[in-house]
Amino acid sequence: DKDRVMRKSDGSYTYFVPDIAYHLSKWQRGYERAITELGADHHGSLARVLAGLQALDCGIPAGYPEYVLHQMVTVMRGGAEVKLGKRAGGYLTLRDLIDEVGRDATRYFLISRKADSQLTFDLDLARSQSNDNPVYYIQYAHARVCSLFRNAAEKGVLIDDQAGLAGLPALTDEQSQLLQIELSKYPETVESAGELLEPHLLATYLRDLAAAFHTFYNAHPILPAAADERAARLTLCRAVGQVLSNGLDLLGMSAPEQM
Asked: Disulfide-capable partner of 34 in 65, 157, 244, 258 (CB 3.0 to 4.6 Å)?
């Protein structure tokens, strides 16, 4: 509804023209879906780019590209904010974060909230090996599952998956029921995270699944149980391990077998 300057008097282009050209190039190279991530401070230029692409009348559909806008990240160390502006003298890069807390923690913390929500990245929490650290909490759940099956093999416990599946309905205790409910949410969670471009949904789900598993594991001795019950509980644990491994892989994180 308003004309925008695209070329300055000196012949150079205004800043959003290269953005139009960039996305036009993507379309011409066969990328029928484009997802562009920007800082929230670029919000004002989105409508101009979208309108510019439509004005070209070259077959680009309305709404191309899709935008994900990120709020600023506040980084904390020792209870104090680490300033990220160059003028403030405390500049941090993504590489700095990875070097300080590791790839897994960096990935998880940066996607643990909706992109348009304020995020506080606590370096001390990300480094800690405690249940307060969601990365440690989730990975420890996977390591616990792996340890359980190593112990079962060492004790010569035969694992009958068919018997285990058949025995699941008999696990009527609250912890087992809640764990099965959490497991059932995985496919829908992955689908929603992808369709909505909201990976935090998967990050939150894995934390909730880990919590349900730890509660279940602490409440019920598994290997000493009677054969039918043991088979069912082992089958449930195997499913937890598989979902945790798959979910962490989708987030680009490791699933350690020992911790």
From this structure: 65
pLDDT, residue 8, reads: 78
pLDDT value at residue 89: 53
When the pLDDT of each residue in the chain is averaged and rounded to a whole number, the result is 91
